[in-house]
């Protein structure tokens, strides 16, 4: 075979071909091989924002979040209006333990696509992790108002209210969750805890029982069973004292 025919049988791949191959490998979870193809694609086309994005996603899955952030930022420099790039940047900052750095990226993602509730939720979570609780509550509430069927907003807001020991408000939200999803075991457990903290022991036991009926094998089941036994013992002790 002549050199010319050998060259024709193995043509040099274009940047687009390498990008397509890399995307296919990434979808198959072959991240290391995908990275090699993305880098080769970038060597042929330096302003290939899709390859930078793909590199970022690969490194995210390989749990190398600093590299993921680096390449996603490269992608954002080239295409400043890509929702997915800013959303993934925010997620990588959270995974890297930099919630305050995630905020600006989620803000940008929301500006690009204000109708996507996931970015708004992650923005609230970022503020919560930065201990900016009032801002987080405001964001969760705004999300509930704009997307009343988005149950994750109720979940995160009620959890934060419980963390802040605002149990009555949390129980109201958890009841709204149950109206949307009557089999939501997390809501049953949450309401039980709220009533328990508010001193409403009988109501607490009722919701604890409903939780155990729904999730008897849950990791939280052991705590609930132990708590119910203590509540029952307290009730029995009070009866004995009243007789005396």
Short description:
By secondary structure, this protein is an all-alpha fold. The chain has 14 helices and no strands. The chain has three domains: 36 residues, no CATH class; 65 residues, Serine Threonine Protein Phosphatase 5, Tetratricopeptide repeat; 88 residues, Serine Threonine Protein Phosphatase 5, Tetratricopeptide repeat.
List keywords for this structure.
244 residues, mainly alpha, Serine Threonine Protein Phosphatase 5, Tetratricopeptide repeat, 14 helices
Overview of the structural elements:
The protein has 244 residues and is mainly alpha-helical. It has 3 domains: 36 residues, no CATH class; 65 residues, Tetratricopeptide repeat domain (Serine Threonine Protein Phosphatase 5, Tetratricopeptide repeat, Alpha Horseshoe), CATH 1.25.40; 88 residues, Serine Threonine Protein Phosphatase 5, Tetratricopeptide repeat. The protein is built from 14 helices and no strands. Helix 6 runs parallel beside helix 8, helix 8 packs antiparallel against helix 9 and helix 9 packs antiparallel against helix 10.
Break the fold down into its secondary structure elements and pairings.
Elements: H1 3-9, H2 15-27, H3 31-44, H4 49-61, H5 65-78, H6 83-95, H7 99-112, H8 117-129, H9 133-146, H10 151-163, H11 167-180, H12 185-197, H13 201-214, H14 221-243
Helix pairs in contact: 2-3, 2-4, 3-4, 4-5, 5-6, 6-7, 6-8, 7-8, 8-9, 9-10, 10-11, 11-12, 12-13, 13-14
